[in-house]
Structure formats: C-alpha cells, structure tokens
Design brief:
Layout (H helix, E strand, L loop, with lengths): L1 H26 L6 H30 L8 H6 L1 H27 L1 H12 L5 H32 L2 H5 L3 H4 L3 H19 L13 H36 L12
Length: about 250
C-alpha cells in the first residue's frame, strides 16, 4: 500500500506539473488575434484534460491493482464521464459558496430577528458555524466526492455512475476521515509556511533555492494528500464490488 501511495503521488504530481506548464504557456500567449485566442483556449482545455486524466488514470490503476501508465487509455475513454461528474461536483461546491455569501449578506437581518424573537444577542457562533460548514463541504466533502467519483468510473459501468450513488458513497467515515486529516495536515498546515523564511537567510541565490525547495515540498505534500484520498476511495470500491484486473496490465 505504501508503494502504491508513493507511486500515485509521483504520477499525479508529474501530470499536474505538465498541466501547470500548459497553463503557464497560456499566460504567456499573446491574445492579439483569433489564432492566438484559439491557441489560448486549446491550452486551457489541454490543462484541464491533463489534470483530470492524471487523477483518473491513477484511480483506475489503484482500483484494478495496476500501474498508472497502462491505465491512461482506459481512463481517457471515460474522460467525458469524469468531466461531467466533476462539473456536477463543481456546481455543488459553488452552491455552498453561494449559501455562505447569501448568509453573510443577510447576517444583520438574522441578528435583528434573533433579538426580536428572544432578545438573543450572541449570534456570532451561528455565523462562525455557517463558515465552518461551508469550508468543510468545499475542502473535505468536495475532494471526497471527486476521489469517489473517479473510483466509481474506474470500477463500474456508465449507467452505474450516472445513478449518482457516488454522492452518498463519499460520506463513508473512512473517506471523510482521511480527507479531513489529509487536508489539515498535508495541505492547510504546510501552506501556513508558504511566506516563511529564516531571518538569517541572505537575499541572494540561496534565498531563491530555499523558496523553490519549500514550494516543491508543499506541492508534493498536497499531491500526497490527494493520492491518499484516491487510495482510500479506490479501496472502498474494491471492497464493495468485484473489480477484475485489467488484461494486459502488470500487477502493482
């Protein structure tokens, strides 16, 4: 399992880096005419496809006990289904953000109603709870949905995925637990040091190298968190379905 986790982390980190390089190419593409605008759109589309394909192939490999490279082709065949599911998840995540903005925009009305109803003035805890619930949905539930969806796409047929049962499958305690721990320890905590530098560090090439190494470590830890969630979701699918190994693929 450790080997699969490390392999998945390196695979997803490599593909995501290629997607990042593609987006960098988009940022440096001058949009001076129709040809350049078309090229910019193609670069964005390619970056999105690489991001999804990297995780989809990693999930397929984990579900079928194979390696990521041979899983590229079967993952590519189901790429439209993965994109459709991610759009659905994105809409739900955006909806949670809209609820938070709506609530905070009407916070004064809620406070006034609480005072009128029962002379309640301490409502700060309610507003804080709303923020935490939305944060939990966007930073824990949404990644859990994404990982579970990719595992379902790798294991089941199209009609099984279109039933949307993966929305409830993601609420298993193990999946949500791993997602919470991974986000807190491997994403949120490392990002607290993104602007940190030793005071004695000279402002020279040494500082540039230190910054590059620090950002590289944070990037790998983020990929490790995602790989751990992919592995957890794939394991859940394997336990609940008969998932045969894919012919022609070497075992992990």
């Amino acid at each position: 399992m450790i080997a699969a986790l490390i392999r998945t982390t390196l695979w997803v980190a490599t593909i995501d880096a290629l997607a990042g390089a593609t987006l960098l190419g988009f940022l440096y593409t001058p949009e001076a005419n129709v040809l350049m605008l078309t090229l910019s759109a193609l670069l964005v589309l390619l970056a999105v496809m690489l991001l999804v394909l990297g995780s989809a192939s990693a999930s397929h490999a984990l579900v079928h006990d194979s390696r990521p490279w041979p899983s590229l082709l079967p993952a590519a065949r189901r790429l439209p289904l993965a994109l459709l599911a991610i759009i659905v998840i994105g809409v739900i995540g955006a909806g949670a953000g809209w609820v938070e903005r709506w609530w905070m925009g009407h916070a004064g009305e809620f406070d006034a109603a609480a005072i009128a109803a029962g002379d309640i003035t301490r409502t700060g805890g309610v507003h804080t709870a709303v923020r935490w619930v939305v944060a939990f949905v966007q930073w824990v539930v949404v990644p859990a949905w994404c990982a579970t969806t990719l595992a379902w796409i790798a294991a089941y047929e199209w009609r099984d995925v279109l039933t949307m049962k993966w929305l409830t499958a993601a609420f298993h305690w193990r999946v949500l637990g791993i997602a919470t721990v991974a986000v807190v320890l491997l994403v949120w905590a490392p990002w607290q040091a993104v602007y940190w530098r030793p005071r004695a560090l000279p402002a020279s090439t040494v500082e540039a190298v230190f910054t590059a190494v620090k950002l590289g470590v944070i990037y790998l830890l983020t990929q490790l968190a995602w790989a751990a969630l992919l592995l957890t979701a794939a394991t859940r699918v394997q336990r609940n379905a008969e998932v045969p190994s894919v012919p022609g693929m070497p075992p992990a």
